[in-house]
Amino acid sequence: MMFMAKRSRFFYTTILFVCILIFFGCDSYHSRKKLATELSSLYNDNLSEFQTIQQYFMSDSLSKRFNFSYRDNKIEIDDGSNQIIIDSINQIKNNMDVYGILIFMKKNKIRIISSNAREGWITFAFKDHKFPCFNFWYRSDFNPDDEYVKQEVENIKNTKTKKWIYILGGGWYIRGVKCF
Q: Which pLDDT does position 163 carry in this prediction?
């Protein structure tokens, strides 16, 4: 009986320790900086793809959404007025912009790109929450000189607040969000 109590206490102590590590590992200045570096690299290494995404998704007033369903390898494309589901990227080769965006999404494990052109935004979601605690955004009206934005840029260092921004450029930025 004593062995079971020690084993149980050890088990709960281990779980508590792991939970604390996960909690602090998810949202520390180091993890925020690492995330910003990785996503900044993704952005800088793929500027032409980001420009294509921006032009395609903002080209008219319709909301658009591309969704990879990794479970069954289906791709849903919703351009605001039509929705199609395809089995392969090759099925859309006749539209080079969409084809290029889908190749980019697959290569970088982006699960969803959605937009609302009327409101002037685009956002990404990654497969299996590859990068937790953030949103990847484009805003046509993004102003890095706004005082509120400047404060959120400084907040990346303050792990007591969950709201932070890392500016990539050209209206693209990373916004930190609450993990838990």
A: 85
